[in-house]
Structures are given as structure tokens and as C-alpha cells.
Amino acid sequence: MDNRTICAISSAVGTSAISIVRCSGVDAVKIVNGVFKGKNLLNVPSHTIHYGFIVDKEEVIDEVLVSVMLAPKTFTREDVVEINVHGGVLTTSKVLEVLLNNGCELAEPGEFTKRAFLNGRIDLVEAEAVSDLIEASSEKARKLAIKQIRGGLTTKIEDLRAKLLGLQAELEVNIDFPEYEEAEEYTLDTIKPKLTEINKDVSNLLNTALNGKLVRTGINVVLLGKPNAGKSSILNNLLEENRAIVTNIPGTTRDIIEGKINLEGITLNFIDTAGLRETVDEVEKIGVKKSLDKAHEADLIIYVIDNSERFNFDDLKLLDNYDCKKIVFINKNDLQSSNDYSVLDSEMVVYGNTMSEEGLVNLKNKIIEMFKINELESSDFSFISNARQISLIKKVSECINNALNSVENLVPIDMYTIDIKEAYDLLGKIIGKTYDEDLLDELFSRFCLGK
After folding, report:
1. Residues 276-305 pLDDT 10s
2. How far apart are CA 124 and CA 130, in angstroms?
């Protein structure tokens, strides 16, 4: 048990009407009471607010409202005191300084949430969701985070663990007490259906992981194409601002230009790149290389073709180097063309322009269709949603498939109970039933101070 009492500024640093300084720990009430001029906080009921002043010796630092919340009904399951001070960097920092001088220790990033996890208030999925909720950049990302905070994904994981634990217990009874009359005798016909059902549940979690990533971090979209194809104009039009410089001079864009838009509640992270062409200009060469490298990070590549210029369709072969979704956008469709687009896969092709108000509607609709964004609205948002969770659920899937293969190959029961137990333990790691201390330190270090 950590007996330190920690404190930190929990609101954004800057000028505001109110700022919050939070304390948590065994001495939180005692320490704040020692610098509070007003009611004796040691004698007040839990979850009450009190008016007074924070003082440093005899000097009044600020007029405040103090919230007292006693364990265990708090976020950290420790005594928590929150001081509402007048917003402003100097005043807020001074109140924090007074607390540090009177026995508090400065909280590390995410330490309040870490204590909530260690004290059993939330599990690891819920803890990660707290950070995701703070950083949510779209409505669907907010929904995903709040669903996880409320235990939506945890419930699915716990249900899977219960099935595995029940199966494991029955198998071990068969191994250790084969003469036990009330135990179900496990054979190929009885074990395989149960493992198949569990495998289906795991596969569903794994299959929806793309949705979780898509909602949580958005879609990385890279614009590729020849110089003057209109990539920068497309970016500016989508962002509704002049982010990229647009000229008639080929090679104007030489570096990566980024911007975000919200499409049906999903964030699209657009990246405009240098035009692809052979060049003797060293700076432009670097830009072209960066463009091709950046495409490896894409969830979607939009290759832009200038409809008014003769196009060599062999240039599209470079798309074969990238393992992601692709769209060929025929830009400037309001102009005459001699290109024969029938050689292209019609499922990949979208026509449009940046001159008319509706010129990019087809492009947006194609993205919605490709990533099935509209279908997300009817989902329950209980998705595996980050790299740690996805990595573990993939290992769970491997264990269950190994167990199924063992059953089909008539391997002795005690051999594949090892895979079942490992799958159970891996699911426990997702929600934090078991954890590595270094993992916790790394995970919570990504949080902001005061959370």
C-alpha cells in the first residue's frame, strides 16, 4: 500500500474562471485542513463542499471552495480533497506549492488513475479508457471510451474467462478423478463444440478490433499523385482552410502537410505529400521519398489523377507496394479528358473536383462505404481498441486454435489444457487481473498530470 499523499493541478494550465488542485491519500484531509482557514475539515461529512481561504502562514493565497470526499467512495478509493481556486497560472501554482510544502508529494502523470486501478476501483481497460476519453477527437471516440469506462469490454472479457475457467475445471476433473460419476465425460464430440463457441467469441473481438482502432485513432489517409494533380487543393477543400500552398508550378509541395476532418463521427487524418516524379532537385527528391515512406503508415491511400492531363496507368503499379485500402480519385472531372479509365477497377475509382460545392461528396461517401462507418452507429462500441489489447487477443486466438487442433488430432486432454489456461491468463492481462509493474509505469506515464 502506498502511504504517500499526492497532489497535482487537475485542470488545464492557463487563465480560466476556476482551476482545480487535487489531493489523494491517507493525509489528504489533514494536510489541506492545515492550510485552510474556514470550517474544520477533519469533522465534516464526506462529499461536502466548504468555503474558506488557503493560507500560507498568515498570508491569504486565495479564496476557495474545498470538496472533501472520504474513502472508499472516491475515484482512488482513498481520501480525496479538491480545491477550487480562481483560475490563473500563478494562483494555482502557489496553492500547489503550499500543499507540497506541508506534506504532499507531487503526483506523477496518471498517478490518480493508477491508484484507482491498484485499489480495485477500475480495471486496466477502464483505466486506458480514461485517457482515451480525455483525448477523444470525435463523437464515436467519446462513445467508445465511455463504453469501456462503464465496463462494456470488460464484461465480454470476463464472460470469456468464465467459459474457459469452467471448461478447464471440468477437464481437470476428468484428468484427476476419472471415476467421479457426476463429472461430464469429455470426448471429441463434447469438447470441440465448447471450444468452437469460445473461438467464435474471440474471433468476434478480433474482427472488431479494426473498428476500435478506427474509432479511437481515426483513419490515416495519404494523398499521392503526380505534381499538380490537385492533392493540395483537395486537402484545403476538405479542411475548409488554405493549409497547403497551391500554385501552377509543379513541385510546390515538397514536405508532408497534415490536417484532420471529422467524417460521420470518425477522424480522418489527412496527409498531403510531394508530387511523385523524377527530379534532379535534391530537396524535391527528399520530399518524394518521404511521400512514399509515409504511405506505408496509411490506412487509406488516395491516388489523385489530373483528368485534364494524359496519364500513364503503369504509374499506379506502385500502389501494389502498400497493404491498405486504396482509392483512385479522378480529379477535375469537369474538364475534358482523353484517358481511358475503363482499365481501372471500377470499385476503386471515384470522380470529382475541387471547383464545385459537391465536388468531393463522392469521395467522402466512398470512404464511408469502404470503412463501413455508418454501420458503427448501430454497434455496441465494446471494441478491443489499442495495440496492447489487440496483441493479447491475437495470442488468445492462437491458444484456442492450438487447443482445437489438439482435440481434432486426439491429443491427450492434459496437453491442451495448457493452451486453455494460457488463454485464460492472457484475457486476465487485458483487464489487469495480472500485470507487469513496468507495463503499468509505461501505460500511466502517457496520462496527463492530475489525472
Report:
1. 545 545 555 566 667 677 788 889 999 999
2. 10
DSSP string of 269-314?
EEEE-------S-HHHHHHHHHHHHHGGG-SEEEEEEETTS---GG
Cα–Cα distance, 327 to 370 (Å, whole number): 10
Helix, strand, coil share of the chain (percent; to 5): 45, 20, 35
Q: Which three cell numbers stand for residue 377?
A: 452507429
| pLDDT, tens digit (0-9, with 9 covering 90-100), for 198-241 | 999 999 888 887 778 788 888 889 888 888 788 888 888 888 75
What's the pLDDT score for residue 275? 56
Question: How many residues does the structure list for the chain?
Answer: 451
C-alpha cell, 432? 489487469
- 150 contacts 369 by C-beta, under 8 angstroms: no
For residues 254 and 271, what is the distance between their CA atoms, to the nearest angstrom? 12
CA distance 329 to 244: 19
Residues 6+ positions from 206 with CB-CB distance below 8 Å = 384, 390, 393, 394, 397
Higher pLDDT, 83 or 337: 83
| Dihedral sign for Cα atoms in the order 126, 132, 133, 138 | negative
Cell of 258: 497534415
pTM metric for this prediction: 0.74
* 212 alpha-carbon distance from chain centroid: 8
Q: Which residue has the cell 498531403?
A: 272
Place of cell 513541385: 251
Provide the pLDDT for residue 380.
65
Rounded distance between C-alpha atoms, residue 323 and residue 329, angstroms = 18
Cβ contact 359:237 at 8 Å: yes
Integer Cα distance of 338 and 14 in angstroms: 58
**Which H or E run includes 63?**
strand 59-69
The amino acid at 379 = S
pLDDT digits (tens, 9 = 90+) for 152-172: 889 999 999 999 998 887 777
CA 23 from centre of chain: 28
Q: Which of 334, 322, 261 is nearest to 291 (CA)?
A: 322
In sequence order, what are the beta bridge partners of 18? 86
273: its cell numbers: 505529400
Q: Which among 5, 122, 107 has a CA at the least distance from the CA of 74?
A: 122
Q: Give the gyration radius of the chain's Cα atoms.
A: 29
